[in-house]
Every structure is written in C-alpha cells, then in structure tokens.
Amino acid sequence: MRRHPRLLVASLVIASLVVAACGDDDTEATPTTVAATEAPAVTDAPAATDAAATTAMETPAVEGTVTVFAAASLTAAFTEIGEVFMTEYPDAEVVFNFAASSELVTQIGEGAPADVFASADRNNMTKLTDAGGNATEPTLFARNLLEIIVGPGNPSGIAGVADLADEDLIVVTCAPEVPCGKYAAEIFANAGVTVTPKSLEENVKAVASKVTLGEADAGIVYRTDVIAAGADASGVEIPEDINVVAEYPVAVTKDASNAEGAQAFIDFVLAEHGREILDSYGFLAP
Predict the structure, then answer these.
(1) Is the dihedral of CA 279, 281, 282, 286 positive or negative?
(2) What's the CATH superfamily of 145-245?
(3) Strand-pair category, 139-150 with 199-201
C-alpha cells in the first residue's frame, strides 16, 4: 500500500475558501485558468524524454504551496506524483483538489485559487482557455480508456455495453456535464443502445463507489478506476470501435500564486518519473 504522509488533499478546505470568496456558490471544484480559442491549442506532451526530465531538473528550487486542481480520475496517480515531487522539492507542499473537471472549471471561473489545472477532457480546458485563464498553453500529458465496472467476479454476467440496456440492472454513470458522463453517452450512441442510468453521479469516483459498495450492478468509468478498485470490482472491456479515448491536458493558471512551483509540478508530470507513475496506474501516454 502506498503511503502519503505529507500530502494534503484539500477539496473541503478549498471549497470553504470558495464559499468565503464567492458567497453561496455550491460547486465542489477549485480554481484554475486557461487560454482562449475555439479548440484550445493543446500541445502534445514530449514523450517522457530526456528533454522533459532535463526541464524538471533545471527548474529552480521550488518553495511554498502548489495548489493543483485535478480531475477525480487522477486522484491516486497524482497523489503519488505529489509525494515524490515533495521529496524532490522538500521546501514545497502540494495541495490537491480532486473533483469533476466541470466542477473545477466552475470553481476557477468564480475565483477559487489554483496554480495548476489538469482536466480529464479538452472541453473543460477549452472553457478555461476561452476565458483567458491560462498562463501557459495546455499540454496533453495522458490518455485513458473507458470500461464497464462491475462487482467482483461480474455477478450479473455483463458481457458488453448492450447488456446495460437491461432495465433490471442498476446502471450508474456520471452526470452528462461531467467528462465521464459525456463519454458514457458517446459510447451508448456508438453502440446503438439506449441505457437509462438509475443515477447520475457527480464524478467518476462516485460511480465506482456505487458499484464497489454493491449499490449498483454496473457503471461506466475509466479503466484506471477499475484498476484502482482492485479486488473490490471487476472490469468489462469496451471494444475499440465503440470506445472513447479520454485526453488529459494540463496548464498553469493565469492567477497562479506560485507560478514557478506550478510549472515545476507540470514538468515533473511530463518527465520520466511522472510518466512511470501514470503508467503504473493504467494511464496511456499522450
């Protein structure tokens, strides 16, 4: 089991800051900002090369808090990356806010403080860039695939997406504005099936929890979430011809209070060690 003694996951803390700054805002994300275009000019990450590693090594000593707003599906991988980053930069502290990318964008737009924004899709990064909220061009750092999550041993015998149309099954997905919900809708359309979820969850971790707790028979999550569930769940692969590839961009926000630390964190994610950690959690190279 990986231990993260120094890492702070600050969803609740940052949410309270947002409430203080924004009155009665009820969203659960946190702040970040990005550039503006119809489709953001997202740069492909340099394939974990010596150049990327060198960039991280050449970054000046980092101090202070680096606040990272990241998609919920990145929770385990980024938590470990944050721990290793703090070992590399002992005078720095990484604080995470993990939530649905759509929630994070809302929080950022309402002024919540963030240094880095890592999204599970291009669309929410585009919202940031269209608002001129980024300090650096978004860079793709990972990809992911969608998968059906079921209980251990697949007790309902679900063989594929078509089976999810069975009204006797309790199927859950993310809400449609959340990246994993949008991807699920695309998969159902690609498969030509009509699936009526019994509930629409706020993020992908909530979908996975419904299944691992036995409250649902199946859900659509990222492959990395099935891996993270371990023995508490099984996965049913979705064929490539109907599946969706999720792309993850990252950027320093315009109002970053620790821009140097933010860039150092992004460089670390793009460098070899960050790539290895992402790989270990099932993420694909960009």
Answers:
(1) negative
(2) Periplasmic binding protein-like II (3.40.190.10)
(3) unpaired
Query: Over the stretch 129-168, which tens digit does the pLDDT of each residue have?
Result: 999 999 999 999 999 999 999 999 999 999 999 999 999 9
The helix-helix angle for 11-22 and 101-109 (nearest 10°) equals 40
> Which CATH number among 3.40.190.10, 3.30.450.40, 3.40.50.10260, 3.30.1440.10 corresponds to the domain 8-143+247-280?
3.40.190.10
Cα(171)–Cα(265) distance, rounded to whole angstroms?
37
Look-up of token digits 């009155």? 23
The one-letter code for the residue type at 31 is P
Quote the pTM value.
0.80
- Pull the structure tokens for residue 121: 């899709």
Strands (DSSP E) contained in 151-233 are 171-174, 199-201, 218-222
**Cα 94 to the center of its chain, rounded Å:** 16
Backbone angles phi, psi at 112, to 5 degrees: -65, 140
The residue among 120, 283, 149, 157 whose CA lies nearest residue 208 is: 149
Q: Which residues contact 213 (CB under 8 A, 6 or more apart)?
A: none
Q: Give the residue among 120, 147, 178, 171 at the shortest CA–CA distance from 240.
A: 147
